[in-house]
Amino acid sequence: MIYSSQLVSEFEIHITEARESACNCKQLQQKSVSSAAMFGHQQGRSPNVGVDSGILTAERLEVASHEVLICRDFVKAGALKGLTPADVVQDCDITFCCVSNSLAAKEMVFGNCGVLQGISDNKGYVEMTSIDPETSQDISEAILLRGGRYLEAPVSGSKKPAEEGTLIILAAGNRSLFNDCASCFEAIGRHAFYLGEVGNGCKMSLILSMLLGTTLAGLAEAMALCDRAELSQKDLLEILELGDLNSQLVSQKGQAIIEGTFATSMPLQHLQKDLCLAISIGDQLEQPLPVTAAANEVGTRCCRSLVAAAVAEDTVHHMHWAFVLWQGFTNGSMCFSTAASVRGAYECLPLPLAH
């Protein structure tokens, strides 16, 4: 591997409710780590690329002949690590960030030693985190006030598309920055959409997540009811695959439910977070989203169960659990379902075997 003298940040952020204030970013507790994903364009040389949306994505960029700059494993191989996001922004013309949620994205920009302290005239900042439009607008205004350029660019896709370089980029904001990022978007995705003003990319990303969540909830209920009615889930899946309801998502998740292979490609808490944000947009626009609200209730209950059980991820193939599925929008009736179905559809973390 070839590494340049560019810096990549591993700015550690403590995101728990009981977070202690710190006057220096080095003092932040290391209970939760969110690293800025960075790359820089330097005049007269090929783009240097660093990504923290996953090692797999970074490897894809490397295959595409970009120089990878990322912390941890790559530092061991010779990459240099900056102490703060400001270090990276100062040394790069374009900075990418992909963290877990809106709070982490704000910390990266507005926190001590954050991005704003390194932004200057014409530097670009690309926010790839799935966040709400208001947070994106706040970040955009702050970047613009410092003379920088801003682009939101959340992605559609999870682990497998990242492996294959087939993510879909949903960009909005500065058009010239979008054009400057074309080669890097091509390295990690099969298509990059430019959707106009800041906020549009976030909205489109959340709408796609909304459709994903409701589809998975419907599939989970169908598989659970099929099992409870003593019908073959394999027969149901075969029928689905032969009809108008067939899709790659239904086929893959349905098969995972049947086989009990629940490899996590998108953490449940991230999908549930997006459902909440989509519902919030619906409320602002006075657009009812009852189906999404029901799917969100499923995710909320599941997340609470996961927290209560103090889960361990490495036991995923040995777990079977149960939780309450919300049934109906009007009568509030409840029923119990086999958790394997819901678990497989939502790809959530495992719970200990229920007795």
Automatic annotation (TrEMBL):
Molecular function as annotated in GO: DNA binding; NAD binding; NADP binding; nucleosome binding
Gene3D superfamilies cross-referenced by the UniProt entry: N-(1-d-carboxylethyl)-l-norvaline Dehydrogenase, domain 2, NAD(P)-binding Rossmann-like Domain
Gene Ontology CC annotation, any one: chromatin
Pfam family, one: NAD_binding_11
GO BP of this protein: transcription elongation-coupled chromatin remodeling
Domain 3-hydroxyisobutyrate dehydrogenase-like NAD-binding: 199-306
Domain 6-phosphogluconate dehydrogenase NADP-binding: 71-196
Protein family per UniProt: Belongs to the HIBADH-related family. NP60 subfamily.
Name of the protein this chain belongs to: Uncharacterized protein
Organism for this UniProt entry: Haemaphysalis longicornis (Bush tick)
